[in-house]
Amino acid sequence: MAGDAGTSPNVRYIFVGVADFICLLMAAESLNALQYKRALVWLVAGVASFLIGYHWPRIQSKFRRSSGERQVEEQFAPTDTGASPASHTVPHSREDHQPTLLDLFKKDFSNTLRSSDQEDAIKFQRPDGASLNIRRQVYMDFPAMAKFAGFYIPMPPPPLNLSGDMTFNACLALIKADAVQQAFDHVASQVAIASGRDGQMTRIQDLTFSGRVLIYHEEFLSIYQKADILKAGEAKGMGIQFMGMDYLGTQVAAWHRQQGMDGAPRLLCTGVSSHKGAITVYEDDMTSSPLVSTARVIGRPIFYHLKIANEPTGTVDRKVAEKIAGRVQIFHENGTPAARERLHRWENSPGPKEAGKSADQLVAIDIPPNGVECNLDIAMKYEEEDSFYTPNNETAMRHGQSGWREEDFKFPPGTYMAKVYLSGTNTVTDLRCQIVNKGVGSKLEITPL
User: Closest by alpha carbon to 155, among 173, 134, 137, 174?
Assistant: First the structure.
């Protein structure tokens, strides 16, 4: 009696009629042989066959609906707890590690039906052959009759570049290729997704694109780059929402609160300081007895420092930022590296004069959660010269006689960006600042970003 979706009503009724006739015939033969129990069984079977055949369309519809809903729940229901569409908050359940941006991409909007690719769906390649593997996700809000899309763009591969150009170009490529509609079409073609009651089912094709597009990006994008992306998206009816490092920061802070870590360290750049200092070398008088060392000043440059403070988000149990060391790398304005990354020193930490070759081992400091600022050396410049330098303990040991002028870390007039990586035993922070060098007779203009 059971037919598939393509069985015509006439065929179904003929099949039911034949089955009923056979049951009635067997019942009559049983009565003729005085086998009353057997006759009753065949009669009941005939009546049941008739009733099932008569009501089969309704039974089939109910079975399909139940099966379809079960399939959607198993394949597409969210498996992780995450942020609601309205709040974007970190899950209330405790996690064993603080969230990454990829974690948030997977977990946000947990109350909305989502479909994502098991593997990276889009490959964006730059001229030098390096590529970005971009993930995509479709969000389906059936009660609101709306759908939207999200993309996760990872950190570009080396060489490290702070210009944001690769992520910027990847965003424009997604818009130009109509990647949002491609994501909708892909999901619709892979599996039938529908919601609603019998006769009132809503398919993904029936949902209206709300215009919302989420871009989770690991690389820093400037205000100007974001403005260009927004403009390109608006031309195609997209309202783009950026989910970058600032968004991750708020979610990490929320995670700390949920873990009972309200007072977790939070390192901030609160400003810039500078002072003119003397570079002194010590020379031994080999003719005197006992041996006498004399000090000689060989330069008076201006030293520049970033003022770093520890300002935890909580009000109780505020924690010390422990064993913090600072590494600095200078980039050209276009984002290409101007010099390699290396360890810098804190202004008041022991230098080679006090600690010798062990100075770098003593460069890490504790920063208490009291707002007191600690100065990290960032640059040095002689006002009468064009270029500035970024000295550290190694410079003092190897280039003392040259007034700490190190050719590998010499930067002529121009605009630069410095990436400052602060790491310790209980916190990690990335900071950036812009350095403008106007050359002879000018001080450096350093602006925290």
Answer: 134
Q: Which two tokens stand for residue 358?
A: 């062990």
- Higher model confidence: residue 180 or residue 2? 180
Q: Hey, what are 130's tokens?
A: 């390096």
Question: For residue 87, what are the contacts with CB-CB under 8 A and spacing of at least 6?
Answer: none
Residue 86: closest CA among 123, 112, 61: 112
Residue 376: C-alpha distances to residues 180, 333, 363 (Å): 45, 22, 10
Taking residue 364's Cβ as centre, other Cβ atoms within 10 Å add up to 17
pLDDT of 295: 66
Q: Which amino acid is at 79?
A: T
Q: Where are the domains of the chain?
A: 9-73, 101-252, 262-448
Most distant CA atoms of the chain, gap in Å = 141
Q: Among 112-116, 231-235, 290-294, 443-447, where is mean pLDDT lowest?
A: 290-294
The region of weakest confidence among 4-8, 95-99, 101-105, 140-144 is 4-8
* β-bridge partners, 437: 414
